[in-house]
Design a protein that fits this description.
192 residues, mainly alpha
Length: 192
């Protein structure tokens, strides 16, 4: 014997090689590393600072799951609101489509997403209804676009203001029962 450390398996060459990694494990590792790399790159983008206050878990599947039952049009408007790439005066002014970023509804300040949802006097009644339906007391919080329980109320606010009717069409949310049935149908499709 060659000492206490000697073991017969060390002599058999096939047992000295590391075990091969299965394709499944390789795929899992590649997917995880790609996700980390994407997340790091995304967090360096200027859009991330805007979205982070709305949904700190971004990038994640949370938004996809939250909007699974919505129409493409409704998802589009929510994404545009979250990234502030939406046809409001401030954005249109920034890309050179209009001369002034001032809100045409109230003429008080630049029409940005925060102004449209939280401060524009032209939508005071719709905002009051939004605050009541979401349980907001004094002011609408910036994360209203990132919470699953407020999506339907935000879409109702957008539809009630008619601000994007011309550019996005009808954004009226489905009735609660319809939405729940659609959500169940989508969930059932995932398992099929």
């Amino acid at each position: 014997m060659k000492g206490a450390q000697y073991h017969w398996n060390n002599q058999v060459s096939i047992l000295r090689r590391p075990l091969p990694i299965s394709c499944s494990a390789k795929r899992q590792h590649l997917k995880a590393s790609t996700k980390k790399q994407y997340s790091r790159k995304f967090k360096k983008l200027p859009q991330f600072r805007k979205i982070e206050s709305i949904d700190p878990s971004t990038p994640s599947n949370k938004f996809r799951k939250m909007t699974a039952t919505l129409s493409r049009r409704q998802k589009s408007i929510l994404i545009q609101l979250r990234t502030e790439h939406i046809p409001l005066q401030a954005y249109l002014h920034r890309i050179g489509k209009v001369e002034s970023p001032t809100c045409q509804q109230c003429n008080e300040e630049a029409e940005m997403v925060s102004h449209y949802i939280r401060r524009c006097r032209a939508y005071k009644g719709q905002r009051r209804e939004l605050m009541t339906s979401t349980g907001e007391r004094h002011d609408i919080s910036s994360d209203i676009l990132g919470r699953k329980e407020t999506v339907q109320q935000v879409l109702k606010y957008i539809a009630d203001t008619k601000r994007f009717k011309e550019s996005h069409g009808d954004l009226t949310p489905k009735m609660q029962e319809e939405a729940e049935q659609e959500e169940q149908r989508v969930a059932d499709e995932v398992w099929v």
